[in-house]
Structures are given as structure tokens and as C-alpha cells.
Amino acid sequence: MKRKLWLLVFLGPIVYTAWVLWLSSQGLLPDAIATHWGVTGQADGFASVSDHLIWSNVALVLGSTMLAVSGGLPKIHMAMRRLLLGITGYFALFIYGLMIYVIAAQIGLSDASSVRLGLEILWFILPVLLLTPMMLSMPTVSLSDKLRIQLWGITFLGLNYRDIAQLKASELKPSQFGGLGIRFGKGVVAFIPSKGPALEITTKAGEVILVRSNQVENLIAALTPKI
């Protein structure tokens, strides 16, 4: 798993670069490709293929590296690893998809100024726009076959009851974690939409999961018989 993710860091940009250079060598791309579009969808920024590859590869390597690091962190609970992999994997996929789409839209054109991005680009941008308010919303704790921490009905972290060592009430302060949202520290993951009471879960492996909630005592009462 770790090797495959680190392989992506190197192979992904190499394959993308080879594809773009091959298209260019075959005369299938404009001399100056479009790299930026205005609000109307009209191209208003251009660069040479080589310049495009410089900054695009920086973005691709950054996205891939975030994913690889998430998969290689030592001594982290599998539930927390899945959460990290999900978030970083989404961003890596977004970056690759956007880069491929931008080039694919210009194949066969001689003048990049005619390239327009339509509403289809929203498929790439909308999830990113939705991710921020989602991460800043109040999490819910679902108790069924396992403990699930959800945002907008989507499970971001699942934990088996047998993996829980301790439960207690705590207080979340965004300043302790560098801001609002889903935050990671050394052995800690916190769901912080605001300052206030939180359910503090300590796993048997020693990790701490903090979940902002106004029903902490009720959750502790419901969870205690299950662990």
C-alpha cells in the first residue's frame, strides 16, 4: 500500500508529462495553451507547454505526496487512516482530473483562445466548494453496528466499539488545533465546527478522537454499555 502510493508520486506526473509532450509533438495542442478562464468561461490566460508542465507537475506532486504521507503515517488507527486517505485522495483525484480535463479540452485546436469551459467544469469545482461548509458543520454521532462520525449524513470516521478504551467530556477550542474544521495532530483527530463541549474518545491504541457535540453526556451514557 505504502509503496503503491509513493509510486503514484513519481509515476503520475511522469505519465501526465509524457502524455502532454506527445500531444504537443504531434501538433495536437496549440503553441500557447489556455491555463486560466474568466467567469464567463472564456480563456484569458495562456502559457507555453513547458511552462504549463512546470506548475502542473508541482500541483500533481503535492497532491500525490499528501496522499502518500497519509497512507504511510506510523501507529495510526485504521479508522483515522481511512479518513486521511479519503480527504487527501479526493484532493489528489481533483487535481489530476482538472489537469487532464484542461488539456483534453484543447486537443486538436490551433488557437487556445477559442477554448471555453462550460458548466461541466462544475463537476470538478462544486465538490471542493461543498467540502468547506461540510467540514464546518456540526458532526453527528451514529450508534449502530459501530460508532460512526458523520457530516451531512456521510460517514467520515467509523470505529468499532471494542477499540474504544475511554470516554469523557471535553472542551474543544479551535485555537488549540489551528482553526475550525477537521483537524489532525499527533495521535489526535478533532471535528471542530465551533468552540464548545465535545465527546473525547480514547482508543486502545492511544489515539484521541474529539467530536464537538451538545449531547456529550447522553452519548457517553449510550456508548458506555457498548464498550
Give structural notes.
The longest helix has 27 residues, at 78-104. The protein is an alpha+beta fold and 227 residues long. Strand 1 (32-37) and strand 2 (43-48) form a beta hairpin. A five-stranded mixed sheet has the order 6-9-10-8-7. It is 44% helix and 26% strand. It folds into two domains: 2-134, no CATH class; 136-226, PH-domain like (Roll), CATH 2.30.29. The protein is built from six helices and ten strands.
User: What general outline do the C-alpha atoms trace?
Assistant: elongated
**What gap, in angstroms, lies between the N and C termini?**
31 Å
Strand order of the largest sheet: 6-9-10-8-7
Mean of all residue-level pLDDT scores: 88
Strand content: 25-35%
Rounded Rg: 22 Å
Count of discrete structural domains: 2
Compute the number of strand runs: 10
Number of helices: 6
Helix content: 40-55%
Low-confidence stretches: none
Biggest sheet architecture: 5 strands, mixed
The secondary structure category is alpha+beta
Spell out the helices and strands N to C: HEEHHHEEEEHEEEEH
